[in-house]
């Protein structure tokens, strides 16, 4: 069965900045059945805020960002968050990622900032990089 994952915002932003890295490949595999992405409304709003901040730098219009996020919302598993553990992590935005991961019973949080998710093991989660996710799904070439 495909692992359930939550993407940290930095993975999505990295994918927009470069088509050559593991982040781009992970994002391009969303909806292909290799992993199940889980999101919440607050997390998607964070994705929108962060990606629109860098959109002009990467040559995208807001409508391009909207199209990407619409696709993510179409194929991802939507989760409602009814509880909060804040603060658990140093960054409240990381807590938002953690809440979705716990509620969805995800296996992995995919991030470039592994240290920011120290301690999530107590929730049965593992923080991994985009490259590690590609390795786990057999997509690293």
Short characterization:
By secondary structure, the chain is α/β, with parallel strands linked by helices. The protein has helices spanning 9-17, 22-28, 41-54, 62-75, 92-103, 130-137, and strands at 4-7, 36-39, 77-78, 108-110, 126-128.
List keywords for this structure.
141 residues; 45% helix; globular
Give an overview in words.
The structure is a single chain. The chain is α/β, with parallel strands linked by helices and 141 residues long. The protein has a single domain (4-137), classed as 5'-nuclease (Rossmann fold, 3-Layer(aba) Sandwich). 45% of the residues lie in helices and 11% in strands. It has helices at residues 9-17, 22-28, 41-54, 62-75, 92-103, 130-137, and strands at residues 4-7, 36-39, 77-78, 108-110, 126-128. Helix 1 runs parallel beside helix 3 and helix 3 (41-54) packs antiparallel against helix 4. The two termini are 21 Å apart.
Topology readout:
Blueprint: E1 4-7, H1 9-17, H2 22-28, E2 36-39, H3 41-54, H4 62-75, E3 77-78, H5 92-103, E4 108-110, E5 126-128, H6 130-137
Parallel strand pairs: 1-2, 1-4, 2-3, 4-5
Q: Average pLDDT across residues?
A: 94
Gyration radius from CA atoms, angstroms:
14 Å
Largest sheet: 5 strands, parallel
Topology as a string of helices (H) and strands (E):
EHHEHHEHEEH
User: Which structural class is indicated by helix and strand composition?
Assistant: alpha/beta
Overall structural domain count: 1
- CATH-defined fold name: Rossmann fold
Low-confidence runs of at least 5 consecutive residues: none
Helix count, per DSSP?
Answer: 6
Tell me roughly what share of residues is in helical segments: 40-55%
Major β-sheet strand ordering: 3-2-1-4-5
Reading off the top of the CATH hierarchy, the class is best stated as: Alpha Beta
Query: From the coordinates shown, what is the CATH architecture?
Result: 3-Layer(aba) Sandwich
Shape: globular
- Percentage of β-strand residues: 5-15%
What's the total number of strands? Answer: 5
